[in-house]
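Annotated sample (chain length 197).
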Amino acid sequence: MSKQAELDQIKADIINNNVCPNLVDTATQLVFGDGDANADLVFIGEAPGKKEDEQGLPFVGASGKFLSEMLESIHLSRSQVYITNIVKYRPPANRDPEVEEKKAFLPYLLRQLDVIKPKLVICLGRHSGMQFLPDLKISQDHGHPKKISLKLGDREIKVVVLPLYHPAAALYNGGQRQTLMNDFALIPEILTKITTN
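Output written by the structure step:
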């Protein structure tokens, strides 16, 4: 079974298992993920917004445009990475996802990571980062990769997680914007270190 077929199966499981029916009722569609199933880099946001909900793709609004620009700055395109969110349906009025919603989607996100097997998982924003690093202080920890183990059923998968500011926050805060761009510039170097270790 190809990686893409395995990802399609996870997507079908989310729909068949009716994960977070409260969100299903208010969202237009499932926003599962987009990009290369064999990517070295997986970017994880928090939840889809209005534009994502309409198009069925993650990060297609203003923050998605900024993300694409930052990818270009390190000579990558969206088609070379994989982009997803913790929560796969848009919460009503773009409210923050609730703890239970994040918990309900986490097993599917871990399965996505297990299929793709990225070298680096990049968490965009505090909500995403805290799923992997519960003690995360984004203002201190941004740009610093950490190696962690994640439980997937009865086994563990090891991943390197890089917490970054969310592009949406950076759009409205000049200081954070520069910080995010500086952190982004470190990604190729971090990848090289992971590959050679």
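Annotation: The chain has a mean pLDDT of 95.
Annotation: The chain has ten helices and six strands.
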